[in-house]
Task: structure prediction
Amino acid sequence: MPDVCLYFQVHQPNRLIPYDFFRIGEHAFYEDDGLNGEVLSKVAEKCYLPANALFKKAIKESKGRFRMALSISGTVIEQMAHHRPDVLKSFQELVATGNVELLAETYYHSLAILHSKKEFERQVERHLDILEDTFQVRPRVFRNTELIYNNAIAAQAETMGFDGILAEGVPWVLNGQSPNFLYRAPHVSQLKTILRNVGLSDDLGFRFSDKNWSEYPLTPEKFAGWLKKAPGDVVNLFLDYETIGEHQWKDTGIFEFWEKLPEAVLDQNIKWVTPGEVVDMFRATKEYDCHWPTSWADAERDLSAWTGNVMQQEAIAKIHRLEEEVLAAKDPDLAHVWAKMQTSDHFYWMSTKSGTDGSVHQYFSPYGSPYDGYIYFMNALADLQIRLKRIREAKAENAEDEVEESVPAAT
Result:
């Protein structure tokens, strides 16, 4: 029977104020700090605090046999430190048990790898630094934003010294193979690819409370039985942490399910393992040849959640086009503002998809429409460009003054 590897994504973006045209050049703070704090507190009370307590208890009651992993973005760590230090402390206490592995990612939960290796590396290093400062750990396994992955991204992760990388087990890339083995991308020598089991993960993340689902209600014992029958070395269950209490509300029985699942799995003689342990324990016996970027978002499992329309494409292109000028300004605060505007959620909220996927995009959006999200972003971006222009002009004036001072006066 396989082992089970459980990982949760923990992330909150910085939402923009309704930034209208008349603020451009006059208002340099783009974020809705009040809304950020409000959303964080709501999710903390519904999910983060009770879930952290639940898993801390599971670790204690299982005498350390329950293990899991978290990928916590830099932006949510910032928000917790600013708005809810008590929530950050609860994550620190959970990680301090030694049974929760932290994963590396981009600090800003961005799409940087698709546009600039230099910026991608800068953001990953910044994320490693904040994890070391906050939790005193330095991860060995990498998880890119929204599990965005292809052969080139795997190769880049190996170049940066990681031992493993997480990815979506996309059926058309697997081509009939099971996601429950470790894989290796072509042209990498050591890095192992750990694939999400889409079906079993989505049973927990999406179908759990669906009363029309043929397996409803899902019990811990039933799910543990499915795990026991699964083929392969390891079943990788990758989910949003907000699944517990936020996406699946308390009245669905989600907390009772997760309280009993760790023991139900152990009762089947199945081991809980972390991604780092998976990398150490299993050989990568198969090749996962993924040429085009895939993700865990939407039915397409591609980049269309962020790049599917002209608004998204223009916004992404324009923010990344500023890289050279922003970094040349050597202004850490400005660089931080620019990088926060790379957060993938900004472009996700501009999606105009319809159907079930479109409903999910709308559910997460803080704006009235995708067009509003686009306008606020582009107006804030225009202000950022004016700030860069002012810095450039000030530098030019200073350079002229220095030249004038260095020219000897005529006698």
In short: The CA atoms of residues 68 and 100 lie 5 Å apart. The chain has a mean pLDDT of 95. The chain has 17 helices and twelve strands. The two ends are 93 Å apart (CA to CA).
